[in-house]
Amino acid sequence: MSSNQYTFYDLASRSPGSTWTPNPWKTRLVLNFKGIDYNTRWLEYPEITPELENHLPPNEKFPRYTIPAIITPDGKYMMDSRPIAEYLESKHPSPSLHLDSSIVDQVDALWWKYMGAIMPIFLNQVPKRILNDASLEHWYRTRKAFVGMSVEELEETKGGEKAWNEAEPVLREATASLKQTEGLFFLGETISYADFIWGSVLLFSERIGPDFFEEALKRTGDAQVHLDLLNAVRPWSV
C-alpha cells in the first residue's frame, strides 16, 4: 500500500463483482467523490471477523464486525460508514460532504425505515441473487438467528405486498424531500452526504434486480426524481 493509499473492505458478490449492499456503497461513493486513492479488498462474510478482530473492537450490536471498513494510510483500522465518512471529511475536507446539514440525519432516518421495511424481502433474495457460495451458510445461519425464523419464512409471512406497503410512505417522504428544492439533490444544487445515503438505497435496490427496483420506483410517487439523483451520483459508483 502506497503512503497515501487507503484500503477499503467491501463485500464480495457474484459477477459483476461490484459493490452491492448500501453501507459499503456510502463509503465507495465518498472515496470516489473526494478523489481519494484506495484499493478494494473483497471479503466473503465468514472472512470479516478474522480479518478485523485483531485490529478493531467489536460492535455492541449484531453483527460484531461489519463492512465497510477501511485501513488509513497510517495503518489505522476503522469500521462503519458514518464514522468513516466523518474521518474522510476531516482528512479530505474538499469537496465537502456537508455533514453538518440537518438533511443528512433526516435522510439517514429514512434510510433506516426503508431498509427495515424491505428487510423481509431482501434477506431472502440477496443469497439467491447476489452472494457467492462461500457466504451462503453464514448468511442463512446468522440471519435466522437475528430474525428468529428462516429468511424463506420471513419473506413468506412478512414480505411481498405487506413489505412494500410499509416501504411506500418512506419512499414518498424521500420524494417530497427531493422535490422541496430546485435541483437534483436534497440540498438543491449542492451535493451532500445525504445524496450518498439515499443513493446507496437506489443502487442496492437496482442491484437486487429489475423487478425489485421497478417496484421501489413505482412506490415513490415520482420515479424520475430518484432516477435523476441516481444518475447524478452514478459517476462515483465505479
TrEMBL record:
Span of domain GST N-terminal: 11-96
InterPro entries: Glutathione-S-Trfase_C_sf (IPR036282), Glutathione_S-Trfase_N (IPR004045), GST_Omega/HSP26 (IPR050983), GST_UstS-like_C (IPR054416), Thioredoxin-like_sf (IPR036249)
Organism: Penicillium cosmopolitanum
Superkingdom, taxonomy of origin: Eukaryota
Pfam family, one: GST_N_2
PROSITE patterns, A to Z: GST_NTER
Annotated protein name in UniProt: GST N-terminal domain-containing protein
GO cellular component, one term: cytoplasm
